[in-house]
Specification:
Elements lengths: L11 H11 L5 E5 L4 E7 L6 E5 L9 H24 L6
Helix pairs in contact: 1-2
């Protein structure tokens, strides 16, 4: 598999870890204060498709995102890799 953001190649686990360590900045968080919800958002660099999921309600705890930021990125990148495998299998294997 090839990293969707750079030329690194390797097994899926290695690419997943590389994404967490090397491309953390592509996972954004957005807050909808009217709904009292936070989402993590990541865009596919191949098609621009957006992966967006709600973060657990504890995000209002001041230390939550700091404490669980890596786990949030892990899930976001895992979903991105599933998307890349499913939608762009000819592009990044």
């Amino acid at each position: 598999m090839t990293c969707p953001f750079c030329a690194l190649e390797g097994p899926r686990r290695r690419v997943h870890r590389h994404l967490i360590d090397g491309h953390a900045d592509v996972v954004a968080t957005e807050v909808n204060p009217a709904l009292g919800q936070m989402f993590y958002v990541i865009a596919c660099p191949n098609c621009g498709g957006e992966i967006r999921h709600q973060v657990k309600p504890r995000w209002t705890d001041p230390g939550f995102v700091r404490e669980f930021g890596e786990e949030i990125r892990m899930v976001a990148f895992d979903l991105l890799l599933y998307h890349v495998e499913d939608a762009h299998s000819g592009d990044h294997q």
